[in-house]
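Progress report, Aim 2. The chain analyzed during this reporting quarter is listed below.
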Amino acid sequence: MTTETADTTPPELQRVGGWRAVAVKEIADHLLSGRFVVLMGVLGIATAAAVFAASGGIRDVAPNAQGITALFLKLFTVTVDPVPFPLIVFVGFLAPLLGIMFGFDAVSGERSQGTLPRLLSQPIHRDEVILGKFVAGLTVVAIMLTALVLFVSGIGVFRLGVVPSPTEISRLAVWLVFAIIYVGFWQALATLSSVLAKRASTSAMIPIGVWLVLTLFGSFLFGAVAGILSPRDGSQTAEIAYLRTTQTVSQLSPVTLFQQGSSVLLDPEVRTVGLVTVEQVDRAIVSELNLTQSLAVVWPQIAILVALTSVMFALAYVAFMRDEVRA
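Predicted structure tokens for the chain:
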């Protein structure tokens, strides 16, 4: 006599299987959650204010701006009163919240609700759970940032009457990928905190604290470290060494990497992100960089940011694989 056991595998696992099923389920939950609506609203309001101010300023000087290349990209880089920062600074400041909000409860939320043992009891490998959750969060982030770029572009076309050129579109596309990697670092950090912390509230405080420290006090901390490594004695040589050390140390911060990379990718007139002396400026040939040349300038920032994101996710992956889960 044979007995049949009921198949308790969720339908999405039966259709897709593995990390894809986890990702599909998580994406649906994210898109229908209140945090998605709130974050989109905050980003939309901040973006609209910055873009309307920038577009108004550009439109005022447009009659005298003949011959200026990449005029459309000025929407992302120009500062116009009453908004004190350009759009790329707003994105650099607020975008980490996207990664943190979609990563801080990836594991700790399941643990707090008591659903983690049930999730791991499904016919999927443990590593596919964390991979699916990370991919889902990053996919939603990509959707939001893409919508943000399209929103800004639409306002720019409407307000300026200027259609972006293929070169400008290419620069925006590369910058969008760069921004997604930047947010991916914060999501990976939040995911690591979610694995290590037992409660979602604790796992949220860790990446938010890191974000605030690097954003608000980063320049002070980098200067203090540089002062220890390269003391200042009042001489010009020591001052230059101090400034170079400060710049080198600051490039360990994803915030600095993003701002440097964004300024080069969205402005063909920016030729370097390093320290430039007066003699170098005086001897420089005035010209604009194409996209390939701009990428050559910022490839260290891109490589470091990708490496930091990979390390954070690898640590979260290893910690989750070694985590003891009890029913």
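Residues 11-216+254-320 form one domain. The chain has two domains: 11-216+254-320, 219-250. These observations will guide the mutagenesis work planned for the next reporting period.
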